[in-house]
Each structure stands twice: as C-alpha cells, then as structure tokens.
Amino acid sequence: MNATASLPLRRLILLIVGLALAVILLMALLGTGSDFGTILNTFSTRFLGIFIEAIPFLLLGTVASGLIDNFVSADDIARWMPRNPVLATLAGTFMGFLFPVCECGVVPVVRRLYAKGLPVSVGITFLLAAPALNPIALVSTYVAFGFGAVLIGRFMFTALVALAVGLVFAYAGRPQDVLRPTTLVPVMGGDGTGDVIPLYARTPRKPLLAGLRDSIVSAGDEFYEMGRYLILGSLLAAAMQTLISQDVLLALGRGPVISVLVMQALAFVLSVCSTVDSFLALAFTGTFTTGSILAFLTFGPMVDIKSTLMFLGVYKQRTVLYLILLPLLMTLLIGVWINLNVAF
Q1: Which of 102, 160, 183, 188 is the most buried (most CB within 10 A)?
Q2: What is the DSSP letter of 96?
C-alpha cells in the first residue's frame, strides 16, 4: 500500500475514531453533575499539565531524529551487523540507542536499512524495540516515574517481546514471504542480468552547515507531524480524567485482565509518540494496575494506528497481522502475570 492509496484509509480511521470519541465525551458530559464552567476549567488544567510536561521531550526527539537522518548513514550500521542470526537479532533490539526514533520515524529507517541488506529479523526487532528502547524514551520514562519498577519493566519487557518476535521471523520467515515486492528486491539482490534500482540512492555525507540546516528542517516537519498526535492524546487523557466517572475507571482499572486490555486499546487508538507516552501513562497511575501501565508502555510504541498503516508499505498484510498479534498477546500475558503475581 503506497502513501496515496493509504491516505483515504487513514482519513476514514481518523473519522471513525473522532466520531466515537465525540459520542463518548458527549455522553460523559451529560452524565456529570458539575456545571460546564467547572468541567472546562478542570479539563484545561489537566490538559495543559500533560501537554506542557511532555512537549520538551517531543522536541528533543525530533531534533535527534533530524540529526541522525542527515549525519548517520545506514551503511554505518549494516556494515557492523553480526552474521549469526541470533546475535544479529539481539543487536537489532538495541539499535534504538543509535537511532533514537519514535514509532513513525523507525519505519522509513527500517526500510532504508533493508535496502542496504539488513536481515529481515533484525529489521523487525529494531522496528518493535527502537521506539521505546532509546535514550530519549527512557529518560522521559525516568522523569515521569523515577527509577523503579515501571522504568525497569519497560526496558526488560520491550527487549523480551521484540527479541522473541524477531527470532520467530529469523527462523520461520523467508524474505519473499515477509516483505512487499518493492522492499524485497534490494534485500534479495539479483542475478546480475537486469538493472536493480535501489530504494535509496547512495549519497555522500553532507557538509556540516548544510547538514545542520537540513536537520532543522527535518526536525520541524516531524515536530509538526508528531505534535498533532500528542495534542490528540493529551486531550483524550484529560477528557477521560475529567468527564468519565472515577467509579467506572476504578472498575476497569483494577481488574487484572480487563485493565490490561483497556490500556492496550488506548495505546493503539491514541497513537502517541513513544518519547512522551510516559506522561500520559502517569495520568492513569493510581487508577489502573501496574501491569496495565507496563502493557501500555510496551505495546503502544510497538503497534498503533498510524504505525500499522506505515507497516503496510514495507511488509505483506499477513506479516503486519503477526506484527500486531504477537506483541499484543505477549504484552497481555506479561501484564496479567504482573497483576496476579507481583505486589507493588
């Protein structure tokens, strides 16, 4: 699915989500006993608290992404990739520390790396792990939750899920069954009898000033793109806290299974940038279980609405289905197990 073909689908999904949210908010507003002025003041205060605390990390993430896009070549990573499939997949788990990109920025980076000959399993592991396992996301998690169970759990469980899914594709997935034809050609190579046009042409490194200028432009574009999703997520989180009855949230949030499912659904629908999702998750602490918070912070950066549409430009539809279901089921089991067996 190319960008032109997927645009109507994206608009349809956003329209459906918007209408559903409008209905929910209207019903919640009619069900509250407070006057409109009080509700609006409370909502504004909570929205600004979430948004202002998160926006510096979004800015930092977009600046880092712009610098990497203009000064780091994908060849620099592919050249040093281990030959052993297990070690290579393990290396892909921590490539986010070299490419600190969110779930939107990681997709074009993975496709570019595939064009350089990166193994399929390494690309999938990097795709799932990098949005959460990068310095910016971990620092924002530390600022939001401090050094403790949530920070350590997010690091461990993200690495575990991404590595497990990557190993599945390392031993059970052939490139021709996983990748779309437009992505497959550069990875598989050719027999030398035809012309192969790479997805990304090899270009020399940019001069410092030109690279900095292009980095600022790239950062601005990504900041504008990701800022819209952050605003939407902040609005929804503030609306839930303000309008939905706390009794309802407590009923959903304290169940060991339903709380995890609800937070996974929120993570998928909100599609918030992984560099700032910790502050949205912080808003639900005390109401939702720790296992569900960890499921939100683990599953959300791996799969959401916008990243799913982008996956379809790189992988075949069946592969995209696996990329959704495998992390969903694994994070669900982890979250439920934590709720049932670990006391905080």
Answers
A1: 102
A2: G
